[in-house]
């Protein structure tokens, strides 16, 4: 199979490339990435002999058309994805997540190619902390932020193109990811790298917000199962089942890194901060046989900490600029 991977120099996309090369080396991969601050060519440094890289924007209809004409399938990871940034400036999120998805869908429709769309559980809004329920594939969308609204809009585009034009598409909505190559603006790598440079982690609000954390390799195995065996037009929710409060995450990081559990500072919560995300992943487990390797966050977190310790040359160039942005907002 000839795969076009959008956003393949970003966090989840680059891990998808590495995972595919390791587990399904018979496939040919082309990556398109705009190399914004969140895309890093260094993420693919050891794949240059195996992967074709195209520096380009998914809103460029001519380029997208040419690349999709030469592919068998498209896996669409490219997205602006940081909630804080979407609050500061929503437009890039509308452009990449909505217009970019539209551009891909039109090319896929024209050339009759398979399309898989990567989305987020944030499109569903949030759950109460004491709600016994989880998100499932039938849940109504209720996004809270410009980011999640833009992703919800892109999901709706995919479903409309399936129903109206017969596009061969599937969607996955995943819980929060963590693992190697994640930008230091995100909560887990930010706190790990803070500890590594001797700075206390900074916890939003009271740290009560709960997330379900899924290791990026487990996510990408789920994506492959949907590509290989998923029903066209269907949506599959992905989640490890391991829910943790943000304060507990901080305490776990600090414990694993040899610091006191209370060695962190509280900072002002961000606007519209969702309380809890949790996915019911029974469908993908039952129908496609997906089972996460990292069922306990502690194990995956320990591996992730070791990766950041060993790759200081990767994250240090990103750290100062990221912390300068947070400092302006008191975060």
In short:
The protein is an alpha/beta fold. Helices cover 43% and strands 17% of the residues.
Helical run tally: 11
Mean pLDDT rating = 96
Going by CATH, the architecture of the domain at 2-183 and 213-241 and 277-296 would be: 3-Layer(aba) Sandwich
Going across the biggest sheet, name each strand in turn.
Answer: 3-2-1-4-5-6-10
What is the gyration radius calculated from CA atoms? 19 Å
Name of the CATH homologous superfamily of the domain at 2-183 and 213-241 and 277-296: NAD(P)-binding Rossmann-like Domain
Shape: globular
- Strand/helix succession: EHEEHEHHEHEEHEEHEEHEHHH
Biggest beta-sheet profile: 7 strands, parallel
First-to-last CA distance: 45 Å
Classification by helices and strands: alpha/beta
CATH class of the domain at 2-183 and 213-241 and 277-296: Alpha Beta
Share of residues in helices: 40-55%
CATH topology of the domain at 2-183 and 213-241 and 277-296: Rossmann fold
Beta-strand proportion: 15-25%
The beta-strand count equals 12
Low-confidence stretches: none
